[in-house]
Specification:
This protein is an alpha/beta fold and 312 residues long. The protein has helices spanning 11-22, 92-113, 149-169, 192-201, 221-234, 251-262, 287-293, 301-311, and strands at 2-6, 26-31, 50-54, 70-73, 116-122, 173-178, 181-182, 206-209, 215-217, 219-220, 240-243, 248-250, 268-272. The chain is built from eight helices and 13 strands. Helix 1 (11-22) packs across helix 5 (221-234) and helix 4 (192-201) packs parallel to helix 6 (251-262).
Amino acid sequence: MKIVVTGGAGFLGSHLCEKLLEQVNEVIAIDNLITGSEDNIANLKDNPNFEFINADASWGLPEEITGVDQIYHLASPASPNKNNPQSYIAHPFETMKVNTMGTMKLAEQAAKSGIRFLFASTSEVYGDPLEHPQKEEYNGNVSTIGPRSVYDESKRFGETIVSAFVRSKELDGVIVRIFNTYGPRMPEDGRVVIEFVKAARDNQPLPMFGDGSQTRSFCFVSDMVDGLISAMEKGEKGEVYNLGNPDEFTVLELAEKVKQLTNSGSEIKQVEDLPEDDPKKRCPDITKAKDKLGWEPMVGLDEGLKELIASF
């Protein structure tokens, strides 16, 4: 098949491109490199079935791209770290634009041409959840005006756009909500796993926001890629699927694991209080993905962290 991956030079997008090429597809990666990097796809450029186009997915597919079978719309900044130049806090308008205008244009093109469409949403649509773990039916607890809203709310509106196109324009579309993903090629953009590994490597204090009691669920990138492909291949038109690892850890437990696996003598240091709107709990209910897609993660946190650490 001929497959487009927006955000294809990003962390998750580059791994997805690699897997799709292994399955002998023709893959076109679109990325404007705001947060992606051509280094992530350097190993793919000699593959005759791969093409990279430096373009902004906010404007839809470039005119020269025709005959597409599938679109994975992954393009968007994803880090909430206010101090990092790659974060969506640093790129609020680009983030809102690609998740709304970009989704609108791509969905319109897909509907007109009969292209199967996957929108990569996020667990952030659940906000600071009042339901735990989070099922797809939960509508979330999200601030519309907080600093994280440029990402959370644009992803929520992206879901609305896809759903409207499914209902009214016969789009063959599916939505996935991605929970925390980690692995080799993670950008050093302030997300907690990479910050801990980086600090442990450099024998610096592991920087922790709050007291570390907040929880997250960490999914290794190979599992997430398999989940995305399963959703594209098996997901029902118009449906939403949580993709993530349901094993839940506190941030303090994560820090201790990183210290242990790196044999680091670094201390764990609280650097500041929890950021505004930072969720206290985050864990997916993946019953629907298991039942409908036949997917569940296979890589445990220790195994995945070892691979990430080795990649450094």
